[in-house]
Design brief:
By secondary structure, the protein is an alpha/beta fold. The protein has 14 helices and 15 strands. α10 links the parallel β8 and β9.
């Protein structure tokens, strides 16, 4: 018999909730199963995606590795061809010799260690690693038996010079066409200095070769005491200051607020006996910020070839290294002089005329009439080049042409809009009848009228650097071009044989005006040439 179930209120309530609990449990189970399934699918998709990404990255790395191997192979082929041209490859090509052979060095340095960058004799790299690694510098089949790092010192010097020199041309004591208008505009000086620092830390050989480039160009800044101490140190039996070739010395470091204020600058100069270029730059701040209360000592510059000087009268009163006249008197071999600034009548001047026997190039920035009169008092027997960066006030350039014009060979007008305001070419040609070369910027120079006086011009160099300034006094570029070409083609230049084009002439060459001008000049025996490579290398233009 079945035991009867009590029919009380509790049992009836339990019977009422039992189906609901079962339904809720079933629903939770279904939700859990769905969540697990969804999570599993997402994990599977993520895993597949990760696998695909890894496969793609692996394929990219494999392609990069293949590309690097190919580049290394190309470099090895190029190295072998260079060695063959230099005549240092073995007769048999060394195709079956995989072991590196290094010639013994007879001359050893004092410490008994070879300072040259040779391969280590204790290398234990296996033969298979040498042949398979794309980065291995060990000789493989077909390469030279000599280590390519055993180069003559002159080649190492040339390589390090190219690697550590910025693109800007180092200040030269000789004249270069249009170089004055583009000096010190390169932004790569900091990068070149960083490369020099890295080169001298590679090995002793590279330090010996690269040390001169590290110290050849020095600018005195806030670390002047540390610089003076560093230049006084010795390396390899030589003082580091002997490597300095160019020194930029701002005026704040030669002030004389006390009688010993300039001693640090003099100490730096004394540490640089081989100095060839000295720069006294323009002060961006107010000149009276530097005090000159005591006299300054002079310093000899027997090897100085180039001097860039911005004149300040307060500084000149202290004499010595702050006075242009004193520095010129102690620079007997000066070849290139750049001057700027204003000279007062109270500025000290020598009673006897200053003689600069070796000066060949005078570059004039913005100077006043008194400064021009002082220059005209100098005796410059070797002067042949004059660069005028700015048209001087009160016809100052005409005084220079009148004084030195008979001996000049080259005259150049700078890239300054001041030359667009008035005709500066006609007074120059009238004052320098014997000049042979004339350089000017086509778009920065006022077009002169036709010139029919006797003239010995043989070569005219034109630079096409653009100028976008147009006013009522300045004609537009097309009108300037037309008037300049008329001046060149119709003036009386019987000795003119070359017109050299500098800069970008791509927009001017197709102009019919220039085509007719080229034909006219060619018929007179004058060639139109493009400047290529360096400033002195020229090749005839296709239209010539």
């Amino acid at each position: 018999m079945t035991t009867p179930t009590p029919a009380g209120p509790a049992n009836r309530l339990a019977n009422f909730f039992r189906p609901r609990k079962q339904a809720v449990a079933s629903e939770n189970k279904h939700r859990l199963d769905a969540t697990v399934t969804k999570t599993t699918e997402e994990s599977s998709q993520k895993s597949q995606k990760s696998i695909q990404v890894l496969c793609a990255e692996n394929e990219a790395l494999k392609n990069d590795n293949d590309a690097l191997k190919k580049q290394c192979g190309d470099l090895q082929d190029r190295l072998q061809r260079v060695e063959q041209r230099l005549g240092i490859v073995g007769k048999d090509g060394d195709s079956d010799d995989d072991e590196q052979e290094v010639e013994e060095v007879d001359a050893q340095p004092e410490d008994g260690v070879d300072k040259r960058c040779t391969a280590s004799k204790e290398a234990t790299q296996s033969k298979s690693e040498k042949e398979s690694s794309p980065f291995s510098f060990h000789r493989q089949a077909g390469m030279s038996r000599y280590d390519h790092r055993l180069l003559p010192p002159e080649l190492w010097l040339s390589i390090i010079r190219w690697a550590t020199h910025s693109q800007s041309v180092f200040d030269l004591p000789t004249f270069e066409p249009f170089h004055a208008s583009f000096e010190r505009q390169n932004k790569g000086e900091a990068g070149a200095l960083a490369v020099r620092h890295a080169v001298v830390q590679v090995c002793k050989l590279w330090r010996d070769f690269g040390l001169s480039s590290l110290y050849e160009d020095v600018m005195v800044r806030h670390g002047a005491p540390a610089l003076a101490e560093e230049l006084g140190k010795t390396y390899g039996g030589e003082q580091l200051g002997t490597h300095v070739r160019r020194l930029e010395l701002p005026y704040p470091y030669t002030g004389t607020a006390t009688n010993t204020s300039s001693d640090l600058a003099l100490q730096i100069l004394q540490s640089c006996p081989g100095l060839e270029t000295l720069v006294r730059p323009f002060m961006p701040g107010p000149p009276d910020a530097v005090r000159y209360e005591f006299p300054t000592r002079s310093h000899p510059f027997p090897n100085l070839k180039r001097l860039e000087w911005w004149h300040y009268n307060d500084a000149a009163r202290s004499g010595g290294i702050n006075s242009l006249i004193d520095v010129l008197c102690y620079s007997p071999n000066l070849q290139y002089l750049v001057v700027g600034g204003e000279m007062w009548s109270s500025a000290p001047s020598t009673s006897d005329a200053l003689v600069l026997p070796a000066l060949t190039t005078l570059r004039v920035r913005r100077i006043n009439v008194i400064f021009v009169q002082e220059i005209c008092r100098w005796q410059l027997p070797s002067l042949v080049h004059v660069v005028a960066e700015f048209p001087l006030e009160q016809d100052g350039l005409e005084d220079i042409w009148r004084m030195f014009g008979a001996r000049l060979c080259t005259v150049e007008f700078g890239r300054h809009v001041g030359f667009l305001l008035s005709d500066q070419i006609t007074p120059f040609l009238a004052g320098c009848p014997q000049v042979q070369k004339f350089n000017y910027f086509l778009n920065f120079t006022y077009p002169p009228p036709i010139f029919n006086q006797p003239c010995a011009l043989q070569s005219i160099s034109l630079h096409a650097h653009p100028c976008f300034m147009v006013t009522d006094m300045i004609p537009n570029s097309q009108e300037r071009l037309e008037r300049h070409l008329a001046f060149l083609s119709r003036s009386s230049f019987p000795a003119l044989r070359r017109i050299i084009l500098y800069g970008d002439w791509g927009d001017i060459i197709p102009d019919p005006l220039f085509t007719d001008f080229t034909q006219s000049m060619n018929s007179r025996g004058c060639l139109i040439e493009y400047a290529t490579g360096d400033m002195h290398s020229c090749t005839p233009s296709p239209s010539a």
